[in-house]
Amino acid sequence: MYQTKEMGIRPRKIISEAAFTKEKPVQGYVPFHKDLREYLHTSTLHGLRYIGDKKLTWCERFFWLVAFCSSLICAAFFILNVYNKWRLSPMIVTINPENMHLQDLPFPALTICNVNQAKKSVAERYINSGSSLDKKLLDSLCSTQKDADIFEDDIADSANWDYTRSFLINVTQPCNEMLAMCLWNSKNMNCQDLFNAQLTDEGLCCTFNVVHRDNMFRNPRDLNDMNLTFPSPSVDWTPEGGYPSDAPPDGFPWKPKGIGTNHGLTLILDANIAEYYCASTKSMGFKILLHNPTETPNIAKIGEIYGPGIEARAAIQPRILDAQPSLKYIDVNKRLCLFSSETELVFYRTYTLRNCEMECEARSMLDLCKCVLYYMPKNKTTRICGKADAKCYSKIKLSAQRGKICMFIKAREATCGECLPACNEIAYFERLSTAPLNKALIGQYSSLLSNRTPNYFTENMLLVHFYFEDNTFMRFTKGEIFGLTEFLSNTGGLLGLCMGFSIMSVVEILYFLTLRALCMARRRKPTHPFLK
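The structure assignment produced for this chain is given below.
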């Protein structure tokens, strides 16, 4: 309604509530597209401010949108490559800048065997006056035939392990005859105080500096083996834990006292060639193996050959592998090594690859033949294979030597698949140098040995020195190729290179999605229509 002009009053329009509401927005409300545009203008990410700039044409803004998406895809591609590398090969082996000192390393264990399998005088006595079973056992030592072809069914049952064990001890050269002189740290010592007789896959051998059987086996009282004597005090040394902090300085396994032959082990070994009847090699001499003190030797295939009539120097070179504690958090299938706390062997207290393989072979043999070979780990209740079991264990040996994929190999693989290298390992190797003995120069040693003339000495004896030549040794450490810090650094570097991304970029996004939206909502005030 309008008033007339005659009243002198200007016409006034009455504003309705609906019209006012339509023209006036609610105070404090910010549309989403304006909020997004403000973020694009203020973001630290490269290229986003061009996308939200109204001064640019749609073509230019689309160009910057494509460029930003391309950078995002490129960064994602490289980050996935880094992640795959971390996932597939998370472990790396590096050289540890801190070397291991000689005093923290044990002297290696030694196992020495005469390659002669039977003394000639004993073998001839068995041939002349021995029983048919003794002759068959002698043939099994010296013949290339399989035991299954030598022993008939009617006589094989008599060749049980107790009888065979006595035969091996009687026919083989004992340690007190093979070890003529032993010098430890330049001190002449009784060889019987340093060495123990042990039955190995090479027969009766002599071992030095192995850990006490209480520290090697879980249940040493259950073992059905030879009587062994050990010096005291013994130390519970392991490759992973090392020597205990309260270990006495003279505890064994013994530590080397220094470098050079005067601080090592010097041995004079008697091959007694006149007593050779048959040998496990085509030559005369000894098989010697350096190994970890916590391992039982497997010397037949990997022992080094030392011939008589020479002086040999074996410089010991340890290979030391350790692992960072953070490696425990990586999947075993990716790092491919085991810590001692992650697995337990049945017989051995210390986990090593060789100990695990020995147990697996024994378990496979027990499953297939219901017995184990005499040199395998066992307890008193385990039956040791006799010659009546020759057909079974001969097939297993033959299959393993030829590498056939048969039921025996498949059975071993099924049970031994869990054997992985230990994450902390110590292995020993030797660098050998030799020279022939001279009759004129061996008077000093031959005079100390009774009934050994210089001529006998040069033909039958081996003079060998085992020693260290360095005070420190390089260590190889297994560790993570990428830790969490390195992975974040690589990821952040790629995102920063492609997009200018940083932690503050995340803060910006969270701010616009949470804090800013909350603050704008609290600033809203209810309004009512009014006339103006």
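Interim note for the steering committee: The two ends are 17 Å apart (CA to CA). DSSP finds 21 helices and 15 strands in the chain.
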